[in-house]
Specification:
Rossmann fold
Length: 289
């Protein structure tokens, strides 16, 4: 299934109609456009350098080559597949408030539930009012089990109980919701580190994905978030949400380059079925349209 439901208007398209061939003026403009698209200086410079030897290219061939270059930059970080082969396996969702974390959890529960997997949701966001209630709604919609405590409780205790419940109930996948912590709040980042240690202790050897949810419109602040979450929890992948508008989210290039963390999933709408495995090639092609 395509990453994008319909052809998207990218951030670089007008560039190719303004320049008939690859020359220094084109390359200078391309570098500026990529930086404005939040791809980062390193990615922009790498793309320009790779195209500099392709000055004989024109028209669509330039777009094709640039898409190849951008795809290769993202693929350096690794494959988009989630590694969830043990029973149970664990997905820990992290990210700041407002990026679509809870909605993404609901979509994942639907995906795995439809595959016949027994899903257990863990409401470890005990700081935000109504967080557990929202997760409970998704549990009802998707037929997933849920472990929750009262507001203000210890998130570590919720994770401990979820691990115990998963073993007792034969759950296939545990999806842990964590507080929408700000990346500059060290005490909350420390809490996240504690949660991952509890999982390691209670479920040694399980496959575990720690996915950072980023809004596609975040810009370079997303790189700061990724760096901090990587230090606290060792993120294994990115979920890029709100890709239902024009192609955006260029910050994923910087994250792939600096941290070696791949984008694994993309949210392309509000519906329960609007979650896709990320496709680097499709994303790059959308960027250069």
């Amino acid at each position: 299934m395509s990453l994008f439901k319909e052809k998207k208007k990218g951030l670089l398209g007008g560039l190719f109609s303004a320049f008939s061939r690859v020359d220094e003026d084109f390359l200078e403009e391309l570098e500026e456009r990529l930086i404005l698209a939040d791809a980062g200086v390193e990615t922009a410079e790498a793309a320009v350098e790779a195209l500099r030897s392709e000055k004989g290219l024109k028209g669509e061939a330039v777009q094709e080559k640039l898409a190849e270059i951008l795809t290769a930059e993202m693929e350096k970080a690794g494959a988009p597949q989630l590694r969830l082969n043990t029973k149970p396996s664990v997905i820990v969702m992290v990210g700041v408030n407002g990026v679509g974390k809870t909605t993404t959890i609901g979509k994942l529960a639907k995906v795995y539930g439809s595959q016949g997997k027994k899903v257990l949701l863990c409401a470890a966001d005990t700081f935000r009012a109504a967080a557990a209630e929202q997760l409970g709604i998704w549990a009802e919609r998707t037929g997933a089990d849920i472990v929750r405590h009262g507001e203000g409780g210890d998130p570590g205790a919720v994770v401990f109980d979820a691990c115990s419940a998963a073993k007792a109930r034969g759950s296939d996948i545990i999806i842990v919701d964590t507080a929408g912590r700000l990346h500059n709040k060290q005490n909350l980042m420390n809490e996240l580190t504690k949660l991952t240690k509890i999982i390691d202790r209670e479920l040694p050897g399980v496959d575990r994905e720690i996915l950072l949810v980023l809004d596609a419109t975040t810009g370079q602040n997303g790189l700061i978030q990724a760096e901090q979450f990587a230090k606290a929890a060792g993120i294994t992948g990115i979920v890029l949400t709100k890709l239902d508008g024009t192609a955006k989210g260029g910050v994923v290039f910087s994250i792939a380059q600096r941290l070696g963390v791949p984008v694994k999933l993309a949210g392309v709408g509000e519906g329960a079925d609007d979650l896709r495995q990320f496709n680097a090639r499709e994303f790059a092609e959308a960027m250069v349209q």
